[in-house]
Amino acid sequence: MLAEGKINHWKTSGYAEIDFEGAAPTANELESNSFNPRARQLWGQVQFNNGISIAGGQTWSLLTTYRKGIDLRQEMIPMTIDLQYVAGYNWARQWSVRVTKNFHKNMWAALAVENPETSLNVTNPPTGVFGFNTSTNATSPASALTLSNTPGANGVSTDLAPDLWPVFVDPGQFEQVLVSTPAIASIKEKQRLYESYRASAVDMEAATVARIAQAHNLPFQAIKAISDDASFELQELARFATQDGQFREAAFAAYSVAQPHLWSKLFRLAGNSQLAIQSLTAELESQLDWYRQRV
Question: Could you give the CA distance from residue 237 to residue 260 in angstroms, rounded to a whole number?
Answer without folding.
Answer: 15
